[in-house]
Design goal:
HupE-UreJ family metal transporter; 8 helices; mainly alpha; HupE_UreJ
Length: 192
């Protein structure tokens, strides 16, 4: 086997364990939904990454990417609640962490449409994971609203961080290191 295929083959051998979100506040309501995306490093890193990537691409993408992510995540959440979930949701989430890191590290050299399509794919997996874990009771709407708001806030924070990094003299290096750390973290999710 060629060396370039060795690492992907090793990744494929391991089934990622859910890095499910520890530390929820209660089990219902807005607060629990809001905290949910903040307590899983996989979700947190991708949601910040979407904002950073949107700022890096610039122009209308600065708004399109976060809005598209939130919209598709809501659809994914509805699918997760209904039980219509594609296999390998946790693997898809781990891949999204790696891909987001690679795109940030490389400076987002793909077309805006390709990046938007990837971001929307990531959102579907993240939404499904949130929907599968959502409590089905009278507080479900508030829980759902909480994780949607937290996601949007993380995107805005990512945009702000990217703009802050761009203001630094070594902005390219900082963004590359951020992306590399994210990609390595995603790879570790696939191996765990």
């Amino acid at each position: 086997m060629k060396k370039k295929y060795l690492l992907p083959a090793l990744f494929a051998l391991f089934s990622p364990l859910a890095l499910a979100h520890p530390g929820h506040i209660g089990s219902h309501g807005f607060e629990s939904g809001f905290i949910h995306p903040l307590t899983g490093l996989d979700h947190l890193s991708v949601m910040l990454g979407v904002g950073m990537l949107a700022a890096l691409v610039g122009g209308k993408a600065k708004f399109r990417m976060p809005l598209a992510f939130v919209a598709v995540m809501i659809i994914g959440g509805a699918l997760g609640v209904s039980g219509l979930v594609v296999p390998g949701v946790e693997t898809g989430i781990a891949i999204s962490v790696v891909a987001m890191g690679v795109m940030l590290c490389s400076g987002a050299h793909l077309s805006e449409k390709a990046i938007l399509a990837l971001v929307m794919g990531f959102a579907l997996f993240h939404g499904m994971a949130h929907g599968m874990e959502m409590p089905m009771d009278s507080q479900a709407f508030w829980y759902f609203s909480g994780f949607v708001l937290a996601t949007a806030m993380l995107h805005v924070t990512g945009i702000f961080l990217a703009q802050l990094i761009a203001a630094c003299s070594s902005n390219r290096r900082v963004m590359r290191v951020t992306g590399a750390v994210m990609a390595v973290f995603g790879g570790s999710l696939m191996l765990s």
